[in-house]
Amino acid sequence: MRIGNLAGRLVVVSGDRALDVERASGGQFDSQPQAIFDRWAEFTEWAAGQDAASGDPFDPQQLEAPVPRPPQVFGIGLNYRDHAAEANLDIPSEPMVFTKFPTSVTGPHAEVALSSDRVDWEVELVVVIGRTGHRIPQEQAWDHVAGLTIGQDISDRRVQFREKPPQFSLGKSYPGYSPIGPIVVTADELPDRDRLAIGCRLGEESVQDGTTADLIFPVAEIIAKLSEVVTLLPGDIIFTGTPAGVGSTREPRRYLQPGEVLTSTIEGIGQMRTSFV
After folding, report:
1. Which residues form the Fumarylacetoacetase-like C-terminal domain (predicted)?
2. Are residues 122 and 98 in contact, defined by beta-carbon separation less than 8 angstroms?
């Protein structure tokens, strides 16, 4: 199943058509996309009997953040070996966890204002939680996942590293610094949920090209580790880390500029385009 936020309304997507959930369900489910995660099991049972291809044609440019106001937003740092290597940092023995504040979330076609001259890109697989859990066993972790989407962990390195030790959350939480989308895809739609091609490009230049099979802590382990401490809630999102190719580790360093367009892709999910001013 593929769900989206079409101009503020929850839809099930099939190709170039979208089925409006509130209308198709006769009001059984709310039109608000965020509300569906609290009823995820009931919703997926209903949706299995629907033909999304019977929906209406839609304009992909009208897709907004599929999880518009997550209760909690987690990030995992240094979760690809090649990214740790390019940063000259040791491979972590435990997930390096930070938060991104929910007001930073925006959609897949956002225009984002740069906060300084040292703003970086980080394409990431984003996990959407569909079931409350605390101390979730790793072998049951995927049962708590509603689906997957694409994210960019936009990062102001000037804020992130202006003091020692560095702090992560504020520099990654300016308005628009957590674009996600274009849709949420359930894991059964993917050829291999743990091995997805991931990358991004600036204009026509490829700047990141990897696979989620290279995650140091894969999705199930991240969920198990987070939930050892935190109660995960329906609609939470987890940015799982970025592969090599960020701007701050390049020689010379390279940062986002006004007028540039960042295109982020993940196999089986699609792509999103973020422009900067």
Report:
1. 73-276
2. no
